[in-house]
Design a protein that fits this description.
about 210 residues, Nuclear Transport Factor 2, Chain: A, 7 helices, 5 strands, about 55% helix
Length: about 210
């Protein structure tokens, strides 16, 4: 993979995507770094095995991301953190719409980023956490041509049915995505309110879909 292509992929992640996961029966006891490694391998293998994806068919990449990645993102926590204090002022219907539009934005942007990935391998960094920790940071490096690029994941251990690790933030090139979105969303809310933010996200998603 060329250095320019890798940088384009990472830049796309910074402006709109975030992160990876799926929970098998043993996931409740799975170490967080093993979890990220397993999911990353599943995603890369899925891409390599799909001829439509290899041909650049974005719709197939969207399906892969939606099925493997998004079920394991804590969308409520991620969206609430990105919206900031105004999240508590939003009605349940507005909160639901925000989560829906935010998910579409992440799926399509992440899928677009994956369409640029080629010949990339993953390097896991030592996990600095104890087995009892419920929130951890998993640090990785994406290895392509050129210098390695660091990607960090904030995970939380969820209890009860479907217990396991969930991603709620992603650091790309030193930028935490939720923090970036919080700044963008705050400007929209200040100017147009919650409904204005929803309309802006919906318009962006519609535009992205039209572009393929």
């Amino acid at each position: 993979m060329k250095r320019r292509s890798l940088n384009q992929w990472l830049a796309a992640l910074v402006v709109g995507a975030p992160a990876w996961l799926t929970l098998p029966a043993h996931a409740a006891d799975e170490a967080p770094d093993a979890f990220i490694k397993r999911l990353s391998t599943d995603v890369l293998n899925g891409m390599k095995a799909d001829k439509a994806i290899q041909a650049g068919e974005v719709a197939r990449i969207v399906e892969l991301v939606d099925s493997l990645v998004m079920p394991n993102v804590d969308f409520k926590r991620m969206t609430a953190a990105a919206v900031g204090p105004q999240w508590r002022q939003a009605t349940p219907a507005q909160q639901q719409r925000l989560q829906e539009e935010f998910k579409i934005l992440l799926v399509r942007t992440y899928a677009g980023a994956l369409s640029r990935v080629d010949n990339v391998t993953l390097s896991m960094k030592p996990l600095r956490a104890s087995p009892a920790d419920k929130e951890v940071v998993v640090r990785t490096e994406i290895m392509g041509q050129g210098d390695p690029i660091q990607l960090d994941y904030r995970l939380e251990k969820t209890p009860g049915v479907g217990a396991g690790w969930k991603i709620y933030n992603l650091n790309v090139l030193g930028v935490w995505l939720v923090d970036t979105y919080r700044s963008q969303f705050a400007q929209e809310i200040s100017a147009k309110g919650i409904d204005g933010l929803i309309a802006t996200l919906a318009a962006r998603n519609k535009s992205n879909a039209a572009k393929g």
